[in-house]
Design a protein that fits this description.
With 134 residues, this protein is mostly helical. 70% of the residues lie in helices and 0% in strands.
Amino acid sequence: MKTSILKTILLVIFFIAAIILPINGTQTIKATIIICALTFLFGVILTPLFLYNSLHNKLTITKPKWTDKIETQKPLTYIQFIAILFICFGTGGLIGGLIAGQMINFIGSLITVLGLGMLTGIYMISKNRFEVLK
């Protein structure tokens, strides 16, 4: 079976599980916005830290594609899959919270924003060229 099909099946399972069993969490609107903004920044900063480690260990830094296999030599494929997994799980939690409690789920929005931050970090990294650290 192709890697992209397995990744997609896993994402759909997590999405459906998050809709059926949402993690409930509530905060005030102001706290939600501030914490989500900080989480987004954490996701953006976290990705270059992985990049630094990868360059130090002489790993390949290439722009990830969905059809790439998850290999130890290409760390951005890990980050991409985890980011999309966070987005699917968080979006499922948001939808599950809207269905079950008729309110926006704080944990779902937090996980979604973290995934978006990680994808933004990957986009910023893929715009630049990096060399292996000596």
